[in-house]
Specification:
By secondary structure, this protein is mainly alpha-helical. It contains eleven helices and no strands. It has a domain of 95 residues. Bound molecules: zinc ion.
Length: 324
């Protein structure tokens, strides 16, 4: 039953009783979806089909037999190498499979066997794919973000987004529909507003950055990613995602610059005696790295959207206590 008051996000939901056999089945399902996600991460940026042909070793081109293609197990048995040519297979394959399985399991533990769980498994699956693709190739494929946006909007008709429109509009406007239909439409409006807010915020920030630093900081991939996130999460959690990602990104940038500075200073120190000169040279070097480094911001946006899914509402309620 569709209830406008129900929280669509996990936080605030009573914890579901976990059935061990369902949990195991969902974990296995997560592993196989993770395995498929690895194919997407490798093939989508190259514009290849994710269905055909069968998986092959990128070096020796030999097709991978089904018994070497089992999630996690095969990677461990082969110790991360191709059976034929012994080329190393990235630990990312193992990592993505385990993460997807853990995510599915986490969604089930919170939401039980519900449409909400399905919605967030789909959302998390897309986010993991986008995070790892951005980290490896600095691309956020349209084939993930655009269907993701459409699915976020569609899911809002089935699972309430419960954001600003659903909270405040029923007292102000009277929709000439049944209560059920009105609630679904308001949820769709919340989803749309989230998508528009997410996309326009990133688009605006990108335009400001371009004027300020004369380089492209955020691409259209990030804009589409945030449209998708907004459609799934609604406006409030979209703002949370953007701020948390900016904070995480800045901290990461700062740590990187400091680490480079210390490392380069030590290297220059070994060549010249003067500590101050070495520090200055190290600093110049760190600045160069900073200027040329292109941060995959999608990684931060995607990870913070995942965080928002699990703890965003709790954080907003805690934070709200200081203000009203
Ligand atoms: Zn090979």
């Amino acid at each position: 039953m569709y209830c406008a008051r129900a929280r669509s996000h996990f936080c605030g939901m009573p914890k579901n009783t976990v059935d061990p056999s369902y949990a195991f089945a969902i974990f296995l399902l997560g592993l196989s979806f993770g395995s498929f996600l690895n194919v997407c991460i490798y093939r989508l940026p190259l514009d290849l089909s994710v269905v055909k042909p069968r998986s092959a070793c990128p070096r020796c081109k030999k097709f991978i037999a089904f018994y070497d293609n089992l999630p996690v197990v095969s990677w461990l048995i082969l110790r991360g190498r191709c059976r034929n040519c012994k080329t190393k297979i990235s630990a990312r394959y193992l990592f993505v499979e385990l993460l997807t399985a853990a995510l599915f399991l986490g969604c089930y533990a919170y939401g039980g066997l519900t449409l909400t769980t399905l919605k967030y498994c789909v959302f998390g699956f897309l986010l993991l794919g986008l995070i790892f693709t951005d980290a490896e190739t600095k691309l956020l494929p349209d084939k993930l973000t655009l269907p993701g946006l459409a699915m976020g909007l569609l899911f809002s008709l089935l699972v309430p987004v419960h954001d600003v429109a659903s909270q405040f509009l029923p007292g102000i406007v009277n929709l000439p529909f049944s209560a059920d239909l009105a609630a679904r439409l308001l949820s769709l409006l919340d989803s749309l507003l989230g998508a528009v807010l997410g996309a326009s915020f990133i688009y605006g920030a990108g335009a400001v950055y371009l004027r300020w630093r004369g380089a492209e900081g955020m691409g259209f991939g990030d804009v589409k990613l945030m449209a998708m996130v907004g459609a799934f999460l609604g406006m409030k959690l979209t703002i949370f995602t953007i701020f948390a990602a900016s904070l995480a990104g800045s901290l990461f940038g700062l740590t990187t610059v400091l680490a480079v500075w210390i490392k380069r200073t030590n290297r220059f120190r070994r060549r010249m005696e003067n500590l101050q000169a070495a520090r200055r040279r190290g600093w110049q070097s760190a600045q160069m790295v900073y200027r040329n480094y292109q941060m995959p911001f999608g990684v931060f946006l995607g990870s913070m959207a995942l965080l928002a899914l699990f703890v965003g509402n709790q954080f907003l309620r805690w934070y709200g206590r200081f203000w009203w």
